[in-house]
Amino acid sequence: MDRLRAIRMSADPVRVLIIDDHESFRSVARQLLERRGFAVVGEADGAAAGLAAAERVAPEAVVLDLRLRDGSGFEVCRTLTRDDPGRAVLLVSADEPDRSRVHIESCGARGFVLKSRLASADLRALLGAA
């Protein structure tokens, strides 16, 4: 295990922001993340609110829905990772994305997980500090 990873493991929990327009999903995601040792520092219900929340709470990681009521998760992801290249963004959706994996990676995301599979995903690998 490298030195930076060892330091990160002994440090404070990774701070996560959840951006999704469904309150029920945000609630479930919050519970799942907190049970796994993450610190959920905020929630937002859309693209504009998510970008404002990210600026306000400066999360290290973001769980981001691809389809928001007021914008594209891909565009939000590009902005989030451009503003902080070390920020981990995990894209989620109820459906497989219309775009290829190349598009997911090109927006700066660490990966994509179906919402129905979030509980079985390796969140530590996907959202851990860069």
Tell me what you see in this structure.
The chain has 130 residues and is an alpha/beta fold. The chain has one domain (13-127): Rossmann fold. It is built from six helices and seven strands, in the order H-E-H-E-H-E-E-E-H-E-H-E-H. The chain has helices spanning 3-10, 23-35, 47-57, 73-83, 101-106, 123-127; strands at residues 15-19, 39-44, 61-65, 67-68, 71-72, 88-93, 111-114. It has a five-stranded parallel β-sheet, with helices on both faces. A hairpin with a 2-residue loop joins strand 4 (67-68) and strand 5. It starts with a helix and ends with a helix. Mean pLDDT is 89; it is low at 1-8.
Brief descriptors of the model:
130 residues, alpha/beta, Rossmann fold
Shape: globular
Q: In terms of per-residue confidence, which ranges show pLDDT below 50 for 5 or more consecutive residues?
A: 1-8
Order of strands in the sheet with most strands: 2-1-3-6-7
The main pleated sheet reads as: 5 strands, parallel
Q: Which H/E pattern describes the elements? A: HEHEHEEEHEHEH
Bin the helical content: 40-55%
Strand content: 15-25%
Number of strands: 7
What is the CATH architecture assignment? 3-Layer(aba) Sandwich
Radius of gyration, whole Å? 14 Å
CATH topology: Rossmann fold
Assigned CATH superfamily: Response regulator
Number of helices: 6
State the oligomer: single chain
Number of discrete domains: 1
What distance separates the N and C termini? Answer: 14 Å
* Overall average pLDDT: 89
User: At the first level of CATH, what is the class?
Assistant: Alpha Beta
